Amino acid sequence: xxxxxxxxxxxxxxxxxxxxxxxxxxxxxxxxxxxxxxxxxxxxxxxxxxxxxxxxxxxxxxxxxxxxxxxxxxxxxxxxxxxxxxxxxxxxxxxxxxxxxxxxxxxxxxxxxxxxxxxxxxxxxxxxxxxxxxxxxxxxxxxxxxxxxxxxxxxxxxxxxxxxxxxxxxxxxxxxxxxxxxxxxxxxxxxxxxxxxxxxxxxxxxxxxxxxxxxxxxxxxxxxxxxxxxxxxxxxxxxxxxxxxxxxxxxxxxxxxxxxxxxxxxxxxxxxxxxxxxxxxxxxxxxxxxxxxxxxxxxxxxxxxxxxxxxxxxxxxxxxxxxxxxxxxxxxxxxxxxxxxxxxxxxxxxxxxxxxxxxxxxxxxxxxxxxxxxxxxxxxxxxxxxxxxxxxxxxxxxxxxxxxxxxxxxxxxxxxxxxxxxxxxxxxxxxxxxxxxxxxxxxxxxxxxxxxxxxxxxxxxxxxxxxxxxxxxxxxxxxxxxxxxxxxxxxxxxxxxxxxxxxxxxxxxxxxxxxxxxxx
Length: 520
Ligand SMILES: *[C@@H]1O[C@H](CO)[C@@H](O)[C@H](O)[C@H]1NC(C)=O
Description:
Blueprint: H1 2-15, H2 42-75, H3 79-86, H4 89-112, H5 119-142, H6 144-155, E1 158-163, H7 173-180, H8 210-214, H9 219-225, E2 236-237, E3 245-250, H10 285-294, H11 312-316, H12 328-334, H13 347-358, H14 363-378, H15 381-389, H16 397-403, H17 417-425, H18 427-436, H19 440-443, H20 452-462, H21 474-485, H22 492-498
Antiparallel strand pairs: 1-3, 2-3
Bound molecules: 2-acetamido-2-deoxy-beta-D-glucopyranose.
């Protein structure tokens, strides 16, 4: 911002009254000591000069204002507001550059028409214009896709644990609006990072946090407002756990306003810049995006998520791969849709950062975080965008609803709680597989599927489960085929390894459907 401070002072000094040696000149042609354009008369000359100065002053004033707003937003932790305005930053800098260029053009004309005492103004403006364009406008345009991805990865649908007594009330938008309007004893105070901030057309959505909305209300009071049949609501996962909590998925679809995940408070400040970097100065874009995604999709039991990239689970059960020295990470990299994965060299630096961030959640969680961040570095922004737009970072709620028999009667034989737990525990592997083997061409056609059911089957098999009672139902085959269609390349082996098998199980061969249960 230094050029602007400089510009501001220079223009102020400039604008102070001082004798204009050339205002006494009656005709441009008679200016003795400088160039003069014949078609600009003295009035035009002064007008040019003052328009130029005015434009520069207005620009630097607005610029100062915006810089102040940004500084306050960052200082106060208003990250929703900050990330939101960052999406328009490249237009803002283009506007500033255009205004400064115009001002510069005008002062050049003024100079050429005989105001030769304006050399200081010419110099100031040329510096400010050049610096704005080179230092701010061009980088802002180059980083705009990242800024957009950052918005999506931090503000997408979010999973939150709520008391299971409230599970049956969590449904569509009208239910939530009803809950929002219920009388409560204490007002809800938003976290600073939730602030939407100043907006021309603020969205009319629920700004409160869903857990805060439910806090302090009792079941009876809500049941007067929200009709329920006693089943878990549409936006609640049934993960088969019975610990008094269920996992709620809430987003714009349920009528909530987008907001940056509150996990942002634990992110180091260098990663929150428009050009993020680690403390050591490495490229931090992958880290920042991955942290946004992981802040939203953990679910209730992050310790239990399976991602056996270091073969620990396999070893514990005595399962050995044919070539134990060949790393699973190498397989993930070489078979990836984004091969040759130039950023795989960042692995150890990212490992270090993610350990600092997530070591409390266990090794496998850290490994998922590293893998996700590295893939996000290497995959083209269009793919990441599609993936986030289709909410493939979240466990498939449709599949979970179906397997937990919602709406009632959709399953002939119900999935057991253990099966639902396995579905959840395989969900992080499913996330990595879906991004690493993402088939952009398929996804452009519309429908999106995450390999949740496939990963469930692999983990269930790895842990010694028998074919589930519902496995022969028709939807299973359809779903498995759709899931496989969305992936590209040799994903089956990596998925099997990550979920604790020594190789692709022949039982799950999709070409010989239905394999499971025939031989074992
Ligand atoms: C960081 O990596 C991303 C993805 O590879 C790339 O687009 C970006 O330009 C890099 N940023 C810097 C500062 O090197």
